[in-house]
Design brief:
By secondary structure, the protein is an alpha+beta fold. It has one domain. Helix content is about 40%, strand content about 20%. It contains 3 helices and 2 strands; from the N terminus they run H-H-E-E-H. It has a two-stranded antiparallel ribbon with strand order 1-2. The protein is globular, with a radius of gyration of 13 Å.
Length: about 70
């Protein structure tokens, strides 16, 4: 099931569209179990732990990241 959802995610541009109040929790519950390897962005593969809320949001929304900062400022 996770592989199918991961494939759909790639087809949709590496993020899920808003799925609404009913469908969103159903799809989220399917992916929020355990660990798996995913193509997070094109050609970037990572081992995902869906128990970690940051990893789950990054996987789900596709565009969440921390922008680099300049430590010299």
């Amino acid at each position: 099931m996770v592989r199918m959802i991961d494939h759909i995610r790639r087809v949709l541009g590496y993020k899920f569209p808003p799925l609404g109040r009913r469908l969103g929790p159903i799809v989220a519950s399917m992916i929020c179990r355990g660990k798996f390897r995913s193509e997070l962005f094109p050609a970037i593969f990572v081992d995902m732990d869906m128990g970690d809320p940051i990893q789950r949001l990054t996987y789900w929304q596709g565009n969440r990241y921390e922008a680099p900062i300049n430590e010299g400022d």
